[in-house]
Amino acid sequence: MELLCPAGSLVGLRKAIDNGADAVYMGLRDDTNARHFPGLNFTDQQMQQGLRYARERGARVLLAVNTYAQPQGWLRWQRAVDQAADLGVDALIAADIGVLDYAASRHPDLPLHLSVQGSATSAEALRFYEEHFGIRRAVLPRVLSMAQVRALSESTDVELEVFAFGSLCVMVEGRCLLSSYVTGCSPNRSGACSPASAVRWEETAQGLESRLSGVLIDRFSKEEQAGYPVVCKGRFQVEGQVGHVLEEPTSLNTLSLLPELMAAGISAVKIEGRQRSPAYVAQVARVWRQAIDACRHNGDGFQPREDWMAALAGLSEGTQTTLGAYHRSWQ
């Protein structure tokens, strides 16, 4: 099982690998990847440096070209695919059928992974992508229960990758309609939900207020830790009550599911967060490295250590974690 960690920068890439990542995923500094925050991601030169650093330490590098190409910008997506092939990355992560088709036909030796944005949840869907584009791996959407993940693994030869740790929200795998509605910017085209240009902070007599395109998202007292303003995790007033009416701030943590994921033949566990700091990546990678190694050594007796869970909870949104849909008893 591969530990796949985010690399939002060259420093983040080094921290991930130094702390146990088997592989990292990164993106270019444009709208070909869904997390092109200002100041993050890679130039051509930095990608070369990152690849060299990873190669010297036996780690793999994946490039995310995972947004849906816009007609007026198609050449950027073509160029991104060509860059991935020229650099010799270990795999290209994509969802757009046009991008997959271009990559498969122009660079047949470039391994392809189906992005989570492809939303493939059945053996038939995976077979389509495998037959038409030769994908080797698919990132599963975070809507499947553990039983469904297990059943899917038994019915396909395509490698499966699952999200293991990181932020959760009510988006449709990267396509946040709430953020698009409030900011007028698609997360796919703008690099993030809640683009920084739409965010405003203000100290008021009632507390620290965060707004998105002028819409009040949350208000924090002096004792509270302020989170980044996103619509789905804001606190709103409904029928006189203020609370998280859409979703509680929480992070996915599947550490306790490691034995089941290994037994199901899952090829990789993915850590979310290319926008997170290198320190965050280092801490999460270190915990997951230790946990995977412990589970390999003694799967039957594996139990997440308390210090691992405390460390991950401290890095989680709202300092709370969940098993999300994996734990869902209904289908």
Automatic annotation (TrEMBL):
A Pfam family per the record: Peptidase_U32
Cofactor(s) recorded in Swiss-Prot or TrEMBL: [4Fe-4S] cluster
Residues reported to bind [4Fe-4S] cluster: C169, C176, C193, C232
GO molecular function: 4 iron, 4 sulfur cluster binding; metal ion binding; peptidase activity
Any single biological process term in GO: ubiquinone biosynthetic process
Entry superkingdom: Bacteria
Pathway membership: Cofactor biosynthesis; ubiquinone biosynthesis
Keywords from the named record: 4Fe-4S, Hydrolase, Iron, Iron-sulfur, Metal-binding, Protease, Ubiquinone biosynthesis
HAMAP family, sorted: UbiU (MF_02232)
Family: Belongs to the peptidase U32 family. UbiU subfamily.
Functional summary from the UniProt entry: Required for O(2)-independent ubiquinone (coenzyme Q) biosynthesis. Together with UbiV, is essential for the C6-hydroxylation reaction in the oxygen-independent ubiquinone biosynthesis pathway.
The protein's assembly and partners: Forms a heterodimer with UbiV.
Protein name, per record: Ubiquinone biosynthesis protein UbiU
Species for this entry: Alkalispirillum mobile
Gene that specifies this protein: ubiU
